[in-house]
């Protein structure tokens, strides 16, 4: 598969792309064409724009509650991902939308509307853990790379037919790669990315001492809220029965991690800070 990835990149006429073939945290083959530095810069830029565009929640207690949960989650991020706990920035947006996100560069956003659906610290931890996992698994980079490749597809075909790479075509391809910033960074993720973020996220929350069974409850609630006016989060993260079944099945693996965390004293008490 990794070979296929490299061949695809080579067909696209850019040997440099072949270097972008990578393996995701759960072993999936993935093509990453942007450097982590580029992704971090884009994530940070998007986050700054959101901070200007959206109202920021100033209520101290609300902020303390969400920060408490986010802190416990990011403490469990393995260092191999290149993030230290203090690298993460959290902003609570005063917005009724049921939404949350995380961006490369260690940026996390939680909307106050989400707090009405995620009933307790464990449910909100499952959302934050999931979003942080998208960042760790570099799903934004993978998605953008896929889009770039699709855009390059026509060029690639013509290249193969002509059996030559002229400098003009190569230049056009490189320019296409530089267009990354124009692609939305908050587009829906693929089903494979959702599953991977669910796995990593449920593991993170369990290790932090949050009850991983609450991830199942959260997504059940989300599924019930679909329909005429579905929560914003559902547009990027469908609450399918498959997802809920998988989260439930994964408990055999992650519940013991939660028990272990509790035994070792990782018992977050963020609910004590929760605004009534
Ligand atoms: Zn997701």
UniProtKB/TrEMBL annotation:
One of its GO terms (molecular function) is metalloendopeptidase activity. Residues 61-249 form the Peptidase M48 domain. Coiled coil: none annotated. GO terms for cellular component: membrane. Binds 1 zinc ion per subunit. Its cofactor is Zn(2+). It comes from the Bacteria. Keywords: Hydrolase, Metal-binding, Metalloprotease, Protease, Signal, Zinc. GO terms for biological process: proteolysis involved in protein catabolic process. Residues 1-18 form the signal peptide. Belongs to the peptidase M48 family. This is Peptidase family M48. The lineage of its organism: Bacteria, Pseudomonadati, Pseudomonadota, Gammaproteobacteria, Oceanospirillales.
């Amino acid at each position: 598969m990794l070979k296929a990835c490299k061949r695809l990149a080579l067909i696209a006429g850019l040997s440099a792309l072949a270097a972008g073939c990578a393996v995701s945290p759960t072993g999936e083959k993935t093509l990453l064409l942007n450097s982590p530095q580029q992704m971090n810069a884009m994530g940070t830029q998007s986050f700054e724009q959101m901070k200007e565009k959206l109202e920021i929640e100033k209520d101290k207690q609300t902020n303390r509650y969400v920060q408490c949960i986010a802190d416990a989650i990011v403490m469990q991020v393995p260092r191999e991902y290149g993030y230290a706990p203090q690298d993460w920035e959290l902003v609570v947006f005063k917005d009724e939308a049921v939404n949350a996100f995380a961006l490369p560069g260690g940026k996390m956003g939680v909307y106050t509307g989400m707090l009405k659906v995620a009933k307790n610290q464990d449910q909100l931890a499952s959302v934050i853990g999931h979003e942080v996992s998208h960042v760790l698994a570099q799903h934004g980079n993978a998605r953008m790379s896929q889009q770039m490749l699709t855009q390059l597809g026509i060029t690639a075909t013509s290249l193969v037919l002509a059996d030559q790479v002229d400098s003009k075509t190569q230049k056009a391809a490189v320019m296409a790669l530089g267009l990354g910033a124009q692609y939305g960074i908050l587009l829906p993720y693929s089903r494979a990315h959702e599953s991977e973020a669910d796995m990593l996220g449920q593991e993170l929350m369990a290790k932090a001492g949050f009850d991983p069974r609450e991830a199942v409850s959260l997504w059940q609630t989300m599924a019930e809220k679909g329909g005429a006016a579905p929560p914003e989060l559902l547009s990027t993260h469908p609450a399918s029965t498959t997802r809920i079944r998988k989260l439930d099945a994964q408990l055999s693996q992650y519940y013991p991690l939660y028990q272990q965390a509790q035994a070792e004293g990782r018992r977050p008490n963020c609910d004590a800070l929760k605004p009534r």
